[in-house]
Design brief:
five-stranded parallel β-sheet, about 230 residues, elongated, alpha/beta, 2 domains, single chain, Arc Repressor Mutant, subunit A, four-stranded antiparallel β-sheet, 11 strands, Rossmann fold
């Protein structure tokens, strides 16, 4: 695996990178969040080890920017902030795992191997298509009937999730956990707002609608009936 280590403590960063290389992995290093974001969005990594508290841009800000750019690279947050609410905050911000300092390097390596395996699945499906709607993950582009459609980052993630489950019913909790990376809140209207905006772009006339609401159940993106 190729792993990016974003850590401002040079001793910890050197130790982690050296251990990764000894285990047969490639490792790049960034000493602050802004440099880490530049590397993470410009290079292909199998996983990222991300410190929480850093200069120029802290870990959660970097993580938010990374997810907003459409990156699904698995992120393991490495932090001295051990309280439960801090761990929850990191995971809800888009982190895939959270390891508290001080840590055992064997555990760090094992967790990265798990994240690396988890991150392999989406690679095979860089391009998704339903009827005349096409989504290209690599180019971060969406077209319908050959016409380019501009989507905001979160709209893109919602559409990608729906297209990956095309023809199947997707519940509100599935959308929140799959496209927003946090747990279901029955009072939130964030899904309704984004689905309404997405429909206005994807299902505008004269195109037949692809996104359907099943009241009390969820949503379904499917090909138009013949």
């Amino acid at each position: 695996m190729r792993i990016l280590v974003v850590e401002d403590d040079p001793d910890i960063a050197d130790f982690v990178c050296r251990s990764l290389r000894e285990a047969g992995h490639g490792a790049d290093q960034a000493a602050d969040g802004r440099t880490g974001l530049f590397l993470a969005t410009g290079e292909a990594y199998d996983a990222i080890v991300l410190d929480r508290l850093m200069p120029r841009m802290d870990g959660l800000a970097m993580l938010a920017a990374l997810r907003a750019a459409g990156s699904r690279t698995p992120v393991l947050i490495l932090s001295a902030l051990s309280q439960v609410d801090e761990r929850v905050k990191g995971l809800r911000a888009g982190g895939d795992d959270y390891l508290v300092k001080p840590f055992a390097i064997s555990e760090l390596l094992a967790r990265l191997e798990v994240l690396g395996r988890r991150g392999l699945a989406p690679v095979a499906e860089a391009r998704l298509r339903v009827a005349d709607l096409e989504l290209d993950r690599t180019a971060h582009a969406v077209t319908r009937a050959g016409e380019s459609i501009a989507l905001k980052p979160q709209e893109f993630r919602v559409l990608e999730f729906l297209m990956r489950h095309a023809g199947k019913v997707v519940t509100r909790s599935m959308l929140l956990e799959g496209a927003w990376d946090y747990q279901f809140d029955p009072l939130t209207n964030v899904i309704d707002v984004h689905l309404s905006r997405l429909r206005a772009k994807i299902d505008k006339a004269p195109w037949p609608p692809l996104i359907h609401t099943l009241r009390g159940v969820g949503y379904c993106l499917r090909e138009p009936a013949p």
